[in-house]
Amino acid sequence: MTKSEFRYAHHPNDVKRYTTEELREHFLIPELFVKDEIRLTYTMYDRYIAGGAFPVSKPLKLEAINELKAENFLDRRELGVINVGGKGKITVDGTVYEIGHKEALYVGKGAKEVIFDKNGEQPYFYINSAPAHQSYPTKKVTKNEAEIVELGDSKYSNKRIINKLLVNSVIETCQLQMGMTELQDGNVWNTMPPHTHERRMEVYFYFDLEVGQSISHFMGQPHETRHIFMKNHQAVISPEWSIHAGAGTSNYTFIWGMAGENLDYSDMDKVSPDELK
């Protein structure tokens, strides 16, 4: 079963007046993994979709949701999936791809059937999707095949490893890009110093967070920041005008996914920490 919800885009001047409840209602995606369901959130920010597939007792077929007005989910879209659980498999038009922990699969525009299933263990398939104008081949990407970048410094509590999985330096995509950032022991800040990029929107998905711990995700314009406290296996929508950074009460891992005008990973407008308000 595939279920979806719809989110409008928001003007930054309106967001300034949001209460905590309103901020969470519009930007937080609190529950992605529900037993034997595919849960999706369709946002008007670049018509991006984020969600999760959680096959527990049966395989799950990705169905075209009402917002797409299409026969098949990928008639006009591309898809990225990263497994944050145990071994699983994804079948695309009859071809089976075994996807292990922290491995990714890109599925190009035009694929007719996508099925998520277990493979002896319990997978958690995190899903992102964006509109596509061209079809590129379906391809699995492991951490060994990712482009690896080490950033940060323990002095500033932000030492981290960035795994660029579904990006144009690794595979061909139309506009979808996904990767995974792992915070090292004793480090809690992500994307700090922060940045915005008005040519792309982004979604952050947090996992590997210990039970009882929390992450404070910071968003908003650099001079008008807001925060949302988040738990393990939750995602948050980041508009193109917003920073996207966070600090946890312990270290964690997060997946970043984005789409927009270009595929230039370095296209960002950096903000010095002492400029934030």
What do these coordinates show?
This protein is mainly beta. The protein has one domain (2-275): Jelly Rolls, CATH 2.60.120.10. It contains two helices and 24 strands. The protein has helices at residues 12-15, 20-27, and strands at 2-7, 28-29, 37-43, 49-54, 60-61, 77-83, 88-92, 95-99, 104-107, 114-118, 125-131, 139-141, 147-151, 160-166, 177-183, 189-190, 195-196, 200-207, 215-221, 224-230, 234-238, 245-248, 253-260, 269-270. The strands form five sheets. It has a seven-stranded mixed beta sheet with strand order 1-3-4-11-6-9-12, with no helix packed on it. Strands 2-21-18-23-15-14-13 form a seven-stranded antiparallel beta sheet. A four-stranded antiparallel beta sheet has the order 5-10-7-8, with no helix packed on it. The longest helix has 8 residues, at 20-27. 43% of the residues are buried. The mean pLDDT is 97.
Could you write a compact summary of the structure shown?
By secondary structure, the chain is mainly β.
